[in-house]
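Please complete every field before forwarding. Incomplete forms are returned to the sender.

SECTION A: IDENTIFIERS
Entry label: holo-464
Bound molecule: adenosine-5'-triphosphate
Molecule representation: SMILES string

SECTION B: INPUTS
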Amino acid sequence: MLDYSSSSKAGNLFQEWGFRDNPFSHNELPSNSDGDRLLIGRDEEVSLLLRRLSTPPSVVTLEATAGMGKSSLVNVALYRYMRLRAKQGIGPLLIPCKKKFELYPGTITEDWIRKFYVSLAETLVAERAFLEELGYKIAEMSRIDDFLNVIEKVGRTVAVSAAAYGRTPSPTSNLYSESGFYRDVEAALKTIFPEQKSGGVVCIIENLELVEFFEDARRKLEQLRDEVLNMRGVRWVISGAIGLLYGLVATPRLGRVLDPPLRLKPIPLKEAADVLRSREEVFKEENDFYLPLTPDMMPELFELMHGNIGAVLRSVEDYCKWIDSNGHHPKEPRRKYAYFKKWLMEKSLVHLDEIQRWIDNPGTWKVFEEISLSGGRGYMKLLTGKKGRGAVEDAYSYTDPNESHRRMRIVNELKNLDLVKQVYERGDSKGALLEVTPKGWLVMYAKRSVVPSKQPSNAPPDKS
Ligand SMILES: Nc1ncnc2c1ncn2[C@@H]1O[C@H](COP(=O)(O)OP(=O)(O)OP(=O)(O)O)[C@@H](O)[C@H]1O
Ligand SMILES: [Mg+2]
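SECTION C: PREDICTED COMPLEX
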């Protein structure tokens, strides 16, 4: 039996509590049997995603708030698919790419394209034995493998000569041609995936909102459209913030390439408890593990964080650390719940207190409350036109500097206090998409729950 109260502060908290690792890690769920057991409440989305991936040629798109589980969904869906396919021996072949991709402001560089080809090559080499087992003989594989070994030794940005690709590899001379390498990768893909319906290496562009501007995201995807997004033997998934992919699919040039987005909703509240149960099961080292919370406390946290699983897990981890650092170890469920509420109140009040000291502009509160009350998300036009001037209010051709300045100040204040996140900006009448952060939800919780002047008491919670 573990003696929780006398545990050494130097060791790993969760190991001392009977787990092999931190059950609340913020990492996306892996594409393996643990990920399979930990993915809760997404059966329908897994089926839909796999159905779309198996129906070429459109690019599959996925949108949700950060932390809602986009990456985990894709990882686990592919794992489940590979297992099912191995058992049944039918269906297109979908091989997850070893690396994931992101796009940033600025143009798409040759370096980005090179990394894409290298990642495809690394995936094929890693799956070589598996592919051979399936009966694929890939003539180009040895050259591809040699090339990867060379760039591993000399670095990825090595300049390569077109004439020399395929000769004896040497890390010190530029013996490889990039175009020869690209051709070999494409030929290998065509051997494995002779038709579109044969499947492909599944590549993911994540967090498309990192591009910051809608128009920039549109230009980049158009740039990638013909050569990269339509490449034989590659199936694409693009994921990003809510509204972004929806807007891109509505543009004529991208609408023909991108599937309408699959939007991830919060998992059903009735499955929230299973998020904790499954983590206990997967991470416990022994049956005698300890946690200061019970599964039936999870729905309340899910509601508070508006279904953001990442934010829920971070809160649980935070609460566990708070329990540990305060030396409490509640054992009965009612005591656990009382401590959990005490932690929640303390934490949210600290944030509220800080925010109240910083915000002196009532307009800032008003905007924050409006966004929170409308589900935590809303567009705000930053550059505004004056009414009555011109037929259409055009944000960029005519602006009212005072009003625009006022709005910018509000948004900057909210962003600096980490109450909202500016997800991306549109150049049309919509403006910037703002989303309430997990800290913002805690502040709203504190505002709703208490008379703001009342500070948390230091007395222990209800001992019943
Ligand atoms: N369906 C699920 N069941 C249980 N845990 C989940 C589920 N989906 C995601 N998680 C957990 O939630 C956290 C966030 O998931 P993930 O990183 O996949 O979200 P995301 O939407 O890709 O976020 P980001 O936009 O920040 O990349 C991770 O810790 C992951 O383990
Ligand atoms: Mg992700």
